[in-house]
Amino acid sequence: MKRIEMNTRKIASKNLHSQKGVSLVVAMVMLLILSMIGISSMNVTVLELKTANSMQQGGIAMNSANESLRVGELDIDAIIADPSAYNFGSAGDSYYVVSDGINVHDTNWDEQGLTSKQSGDNPNDVYVTEYLGPKVLPGESIKVSADGRVIGGAVHTFRITTRSEAAKNAVRLVQSIYVSVDAP
Fold first, then answer.
1. Phi, psi at residue 112, to the nearest 5°?
2. Which of 65, 85, 145, 154 could form a cystine bridge with 149, CB 3.0-4.6 A?
3. pTM score, whole prediction
4. Residue 90 forms part of a structural domain
5. DSSP secondary structure code for residue 121 in this structure
């Protein structure tokens, strides 16, 4: 019986010698996997921060564009109150008519030669005003008097387009149609 025990001890001793480096390799593989998981989670976090910052800048640009829209609408109120101070036919004053053929949907107004009006302290918050002319109300007829006044069921329409740019090139364009019974 002693002989069998000795053989078992030799076999067990042999297995221990052959497995000495395996635990080191397993530990290194586990460390590598954990490092890769940590690096990928850091990359995801950085991407989420960039996305959140971009959304924040877009919101700031949108708020500024809406504020510029309000300023533009107040400007139209002033035009209607004193039409002699404004001439939609003159160039370079940020007031246009439909026949000018401007493209306000292009985000770079300077390259297009569009003259815009600054709406506040930020030079990136600007707007242009287009007079779209009188529009006949449905079911009404329109007549023009001898002095050029529109008589009948018509309204005068304006289109205000604002452009606002925040940090990280976040650009927002906002448009509004302003309707008035009074002519400019």
1. -80, -15
2. 145
3. 0.70
4. yes
5. S
Total domain count for the chain? 1
Closest CA to 52 of 170, 178, 173: 170
Q: If DSSP codes are grouped into helix, strand and coil, which group holds residue 153? A: coil
> Is residue 161 in a domain?
yes
- Whether 4 maps to a domain, the answer reads no
Domain that holds residue 111: 11-180
Q: Letter for the amino acid at 61?
A: A
What is the rounded distance in angstroms from the CA atom of residue 42 to the CA atom of residue 126? Answer: 39
In a domain? residue 28: yes
DSSP of 80-119, one letter per residue? HH-GGG--TTSTTSSEEEGGG---TTSS-HHHHT---EE-
